[in-house]
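Q: Convert this sequence to structure tokens.
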Amino acid sequence: MRLRLVLAATSLLMAATASTAHAEQVDDLSVDAYGTVADDGTVTVSGTYRCFDDSAGPVFVGSTLVQQNLSAGIGGTRAVCDGRVRTWSNSGVVKEPAYRAGAARVKATLMQLTPTGPMGLPMPGFLAAQDSDVTLY
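A:
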């Protein structure tokens, strides 16, 4: 009888653990508090991401840098969706007008391209987004 109780309790614990693990499968994205701007106008921003499933189509980390009235897309990184926390880094050259060292904002997105419709054209689906203050050095 005690063995049955132990086995039943173990089964319940394992089911609860599996349910909790599945519930924690949330795609996530963060932006580092700093970025760099080089003399040639190359801007680099970075952060971390975690995604779990790219079977429906490729996933990318995109970023836009905003400083005063200047806004530009800064690169894009192909994501690996294996549930692990991974780093991303995007770079782009913006010369006129150029970004400068100081305060800025990064708008980052974790986006999946999924073929939809009768022609199978890829449409973006947003898995996570982050809008963060950064300092450019």
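The two ends are 68 Å apart (CA to CA).
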